[in-house]
Amino acid sequence: MSKKIILCILIILTIFLVSSCKDDTEQEKNGNINTDADKSTNNNTPKEVIMEDWYFFRTYDGGIYGNDKRPVKINPVSEKAAFVCADSLCMHEEDCPFFECMDSYVIDNYVFYVKASPRRFEDTRGAASRDLCVYDMLNNSIRLLAEYEDQLYILSGTGNYLYYCIEEYNESYSSSIKYLIYRANAKTGNIMQIGEYIDIYPNIYTITNDKIYWWKPDVDNENIIYYTTDLDIKNETTIGLHENNTVFMLGKHDNGYIYYTDWDSEKLNQLSGYEYDYAWRNQKLYRIPLNSSGKAEPEIITESIINFVPCGDKIYYTVLEETPEVVKYNGVQTYNWSGGKIYVMDSDGTDQKLLCETEYVFSDIFGYASLGRMMEVKTINGVDYLGLSFYIAREYMFLNYGPSPDTLIINASTGEYTVVSVPE
Ligand SMILES: [Zn+2]
Q1: Which residue, among 81, 70, 84, has the nearest Cα to 36 in the 3D structure?
Q2: What distance in Å separates the CA atoms of residue 30 and residue 87, rounded to the nearest whole number?
Q3: Beta-carbon neighbour count of residue 316 at 10 Å?
Q4: pTM, whole model, 2 decimals?
Q5: Which residues fall within 8 angstroms of residue 73, CB to CB, at 6 or more apart?
Q6: How close is the Cα of 130 to the center of ligand 1, in Å?
Q7: Residues 314-327: pLDDT tens digits?
């Protein structure tokens, strides 16, 4: 696979970088609020309610190539799911404000979303323009923040701010690609351009109170550099280097570390066919400290990872089965790469154990990593809840199987699990 393709995938992955693991102290501030999905959106809800702390958010379709990206919220405690659109009269079809939603990102009580505009590009592209909107979940109100003629990618968010970039349209494809980086304030609606990247996609890992954590290929396109800037994307400081440029999986962060996976690319080059297929799903999990100064040596946590999510001093993860079970969807054969099993370990890789074994296939059509597939964790009242998307027989792209609109919820204290659906 060429590096260009890998970089494209990285670009796609950045859209799905979500860190939802909050520490207990933050949860405690919310005390005993009612977490029922319906009541928490009514107008009498106390202002201190932070919807982001109580719900998983995903798209209805669940796939990055899916057409139906209406945002859905899932409460793992009440085991209820609903469309984010809380208008009780809305049927959530053509008239729903989220009907042509292309991407969304939740910060606090705000859902930023990108919508295909009825306006069309005026040049030969023919595609819809982009509207950036923000939906206030507590007040059920929508504000249009900006309209763009060019492609908009959501990068990340923090506090009240969303970071996104606009890829300037480049008709000739011969000149440089320019990414204009913006920051939007959810409360005021103010938008500010804070910089631009030329020919390098602005990959943000995470944003803290005072820093943005990024990664990019080095000048020779051989290695991945991890670096920080301030919130105005100035004062770039390198924090680490990964000696390879095949970092395939999305990185995640928690508890003072960036975690990411990578293939053994040398081994991949020696393999073919099924072996190759198998090997590129067989990834090592690395971590580097967020506060590192200079070139931190990445530490290998464990091997054979497919997907993972760190939360505090735990990592929840799936591993590659030695002999994956064959799964058939309408006659099309694939593999249940992780066997429906979820494992848990301490964040340094010790004390690895099986958390639960389910009947669901959640290591997807591509198997490797988590190409937009949901595996998140939320800590509510001291309990970690895992939210996972899984696969079912359905028409999806050119396949007979794709992500289910339902979500698997696992209680990490007991290992019990259930499937939550949006009501018809
Ligand atoms: Zn609606």
Answers
A1: 81
A2: 25
A3: 23
A4: 0.85
A5: 37, 51, 55, 56, 57, 81, 82, 83, 84
A6: 19
A7: 999 998 888 888 88
Both tokens of 143, joined, read 């504000």
Cα-to-centroid distance, 370 and ligand 1 (Å): 28
pLDDT computed for residue 370 by the predictor = 47
Residues contacting residue 418 through CB under 8 Å, at least 6 positions apart: 79, 408, 409
CA 389 to ligand 1 center in whole angstroms:
22
**Amino acid in the structure at residue 86:** A
Residue in this structure with the two tokens 């099993």, named with its chain if needed: 341
Distance in Å, CA 19 to ligand 1 centroid: 26
Contact 52, 7 (CB under 8 A): no
Inform me whether the pLDDT recorded for 4 exceeds 80: no
For residue 164, the CA-to-ligand 1 centroid distance in Å is: 24
Residue 282 Cα to ligand 1 midpoint, Å, equals 41
15 pLDDT higher than 90: no
Cα 306 to ligand 1 centre (Å): 35
Give the residues across from 137 on adjacent strands: none
* Per-residue pLDDT tens digits for 334-359: 888 889 999 999 999 999 999 999 99
Pairing outcome for strands 224-229 and 325-329: unpaired
Residues 281 and 306: their CA atoms lie apart, in Å, by 6
Evaluate if residue 241 carries a pLDDT over 50.
Answer: yes
Residue 383 Cα to ligand 1 middle (Å): 31
Evaluate if residue 5 carries a pLDDT over 90.
no
108 — alpha (psi -120 to 50), left (phi > 0) or beta? left
Cα separation values, 325 from 226, 276, 336, 360, Å: 37, 17, 5, 12
Determine the pLDDT at residue 10: 39
What is the rounded distance in angstroms from the CA atom of residue 216 to the CA atom of residue 41? 40
Instruction: Calculate how far, in angstroms, residue 56's C-alpha sits from the geometric centre of ligand 1.
Output: 18
Query: Are the C-beta atoms of residues 107 and 124 closer than 8 Å to each other?
Result: no
CA of 91 to the centre of ligand 1 (A): 6
Q: Which residue type is seen at 380?
A: I
Q: How far is the CA of 419 from the centre of ligand 1 (A)?
A: 23
Rounded Cα–Cα distance for residues 87 and 90 (Å):
5
CA of 113 to the centre of ligand 1 (A): 14
